[in-house]
TrEMBL record:
Pfam families: GPP34 (PF05719). The lineage of its organism: Eukaryota, Metazoa, Chordata, Craniata, Vertebrata. Residues 1-11 have a biased composition (Polar residues). Keywords: Golgi apparatus, Lipid-binding, Membrane. Residues 14-42 have a biased composition (Basic and acidic residues). It is found in: Golgi apparatus, Golgi stack membrane; Golgi apparatus, trans-Golgi network membrane. This is Golgi phosphoprotein 3. Residues 1-55 are annotated as: Disordered. One of its GO terms (molecular function) is phosphatidylinositol-4-phosphate binding. It is a peripheral membrane protein. InterPro entries: GPP34-like, GPP34-like_sf. Gene3D superfamilies: yeast vps74-n-term truncation variant domain like. It comes from the Eukaryota. One of its GO terms (biological process) is Golgi to plasma membrane protein transport.
């Protein structure tokens, strides 16, 4: 009886989200019609039109949705431009003998029990990611007073970027589903796995109608049920991606 009540509550929530999304789509359609480009002008592509300031890293996308063994050898220590990634690559490059993927996930996240390796932990990851999104105009910074202290928060200020991200995730398992992980965009595939491990993937599916929601979750389950070891041995695969998947889904 309790599970039935919870399920019913979930259905009502998704229907409410779906209604809000439909209303928002109608408003956007009206606005787009009023602002139709003049003859000779070419509208920017929805994904390719973003400026460099609004292109998000994979970790930033996982954070935005939440608003959750092989040895790793650093083949290139060239800076990536992402502070967190460069910090992780520096640790990997300087560590001998090499650690496994599972070990690096534990070390960088601070989940190791070895006190001699605590210096590997990436500090204040969520706050640093949030500040990156503030700089890119996706979030803003506010101070909220909680009786005895002030807390810094980062509310969403550019909902269009989040909605495009949600749409991209939804389409990957619905309209653009290819039923083969090796034919999927590798970055999008990684996003789905990481978002699921971070418990934020379902946020992208909340606005869906019941049938769409069930289908999306069914296909996500297909991906989660894959055997990473076997997938990593297939032709033209990304071995590191599947090693990380194995570490998160074991």
């Amino acid at each position: 009886m309790t599970s039935l009540t919870q399920r019913s509550s979930g259905l009502v929530q998704r229907r409410t989200e779906a209604s809000r999304t439909a209303a928002a789509d109608r408003e956007r359609s009206s606005a787009e019609e009023e602002q139709e480009p003049r003859r000779g002008e070419t509208p920017e592509d929805e994904d390719g039109g973003d400026s460099k300031e609004t292109r998000l890293t994979l970790m930033e996308e996982v954070l935005l949705l939440g608003l959750k063994d092989r040895e790793v050898i650093c083949k290139s220590d060239a800076p990536t431009g992402d502070v967190l990634l460069d910090e992780a690559l520096k640790h990997i490059k300087e560590t001998q003998p090499p650690e496994t993927v599972q070990s690096w996930i534990e070390l960088l996240s601070g989940e190791t029990w070895n006190p001699l390796k605590l210096h590997y932990q990436l500090r204040n990851v969520r706050e640093r990611l949030a500040k990156n999104l503030v700089e890119k105009g996706v979030l803003t910074t506010e101070k909220q007073n909680f009786l005895l202290f002030d807390m810094t928060t980062h509310p969403l200020t550019n909902n269009n970027i989040k909605q495009r991200l949600i749409k991209k995730v939804q389409e990957a398992v619905l309209e653009k589903w290819v039923n083969d992980p090796h034919r999927m965009d590798k970055r999008l595939l990684a996003l789905i796995f990481l978002a699921h491990s971070s418990d934020v993937l379902e946020n992208a599916f909340a606005p869906l109608l019941d049938d769409q929601y069930d289908l999306a979750m069914k296909r996500v389950r297909q991906l989660l049920d894959l055997e990473p070891e076997g997938e990593s041995m297939k032709a033209n695969t990304n071995e590191l991606l599947w090693a990380v998947v194995a570490a998160f889904t074991k």
